[in-house]
Design a protein that fits this description.
Elements (H helix, E strand, L loop, with lengths): L10 E4 L7 H4 L5 E6 L3 H4 L2 H8 L4 E5 L8 H14 L3 E6 L1 H13 L7 H5 L13 E5 L11 E6 L4 E6 L7 E4 L9 H19 L7 H23 L4 H14 L13 H13 L3 H15 L1 H16 L6 H18 L16 H11 L4 E2 L5 E2 H10 L2
Parallel strand pairs: 1-8, 2-3, 2-4, 4-5, 5-8
Antiparallel strand pairs: 6-7, 9-10
Helix pairs in contact: 4-5, 7-8, 7-9, 7-11, 8-9, 8-12, 10-11, 11-12, 11-13, 11-15, 12-13, 14-15
The chain binds 5,6-dihydroxy-NADP and zinc ion.
The site of 5,6-dihydroxy-NADP (NZQ) has 33 residues, from helix 2, helix 5, strand 6 and helix 7.
Length: 388
Amino acid sequence: MTNFELYNPTHYIFGKGQISKLSDLIPAKSKILLAYGGGSIFKNGIYDQVKTALAGFEIVEFGGIEPNPRFETLMKAVEIIRAKNITFILAVGGGSVIDGVKFISGALNFEGDAVEILKKRILFKDVSKVIPFGTVLTLPATGSEMNSGAVVTIEATQEKLTLGGSALFPKFSICDPTVVASLPKRQLENGVVDAFTHVMEQYLTYPHDALLQDRISESILQTLIEIGPDVVQNPSDYKLASNFMWCATMALNGLIQKGVPSDWATHMIGHELTALYEIDHARTLAIIGPNLYKVMFETKKDKLAQYGKRVWNIQEGTTDAIAKKAIEKTIEFLHSMGMKTKLSENTRDFEKTADFIVNRFEERGWKAMGEKQNITLDKVRQIVEMSY
Ligand code: NZQ
Ligand code: ZN
């Protein structure tokens, strides 16, 4: 196992009825920016619960944070915070709203052009320079409620880029699984597949000595396989919803990444598909993931075989045969979760996608990625072309 530090200061509050605790979690006399997305919180009662819990606080509302939040929109919130002397931000939403709030939090006191935060991938490490924020999660998927990363799109240049740093953990996150009940089927499917792929990015590398991390990862994968198709059909079932929510948090709160190699190339390529074609984040992962496992088969086959044996219970055959079967089982699972795994099934005019992505990576100086830094631009091209 490689050396690691585990730091996660987010106060995680899980379960039914927990939104009522908001007034104990936000410092008294805070002036709050309540940030939200396109308005689902008004239809499913979450807004009312939040407003009731925050009676007595001074609140300024900022809505309209898009799925795949836009830099241009978020900068408007930064202006409002400056003009109205806001001291705390409450993100009420899914990954997009929470990520948007992380950006706003960092951008407020950033010296210079805030677009550099994304272009130069600035890491925020000084909590005294960011504005504190908490979250009420409405969509289990990204793990953003308990990590310090975020992804923001620059509309002007159609780029989807990351930011983060230890100062950008939420102060608290309220995770009430009953919010899952109002999610559209498409978002439920997305949530399961995003969480599943987060585990794969950190697990599906090569055999190593971190036995516990592997077992935790396999448990999350198995739980998602067990509940995924059912939670899409019965999102009001508390047993399914609560396990789904906890899996999604555990998939990307840093725990399973400690002491192990990780890949993340599926996400890096996937972000380009969202930036280019607005394909939902999780759906880009379903398009790229299996093709990446195929192109990088020699690097990943030992771990693929472990995954095949332990997660899919494939016991018969050589390492290569089990590894190949494991990829097939993964694709079947993605299909059962409503994913269309070919790019051509998700968008038209895709023929130049590989050229575009490879050129972009080249311009950014991204020459190699993956756990062994052997996903070169040639491999990226093969993976994208295989996904057509
Ligand atoms: O905007 P509203 O009206 O709220 O509707 C949203 C949105 O249309 C809706 N929704 C959310 N909760 C709902 C609900 N509808 C009904 N009932 C509810 N309870 O769902 C739609 C999608 O929301 P969004 O926040 O975009 O989805 P998700 O949570 O999947 O977040 C995706 C974003 O997170 C980034 C992705 O790249 C993408 O931009 N990610 C963030 C990560 C992180 N911070 O660690 C890691 C991930 O890999 C990912 O990259
Ligand atoms: Zn993701």
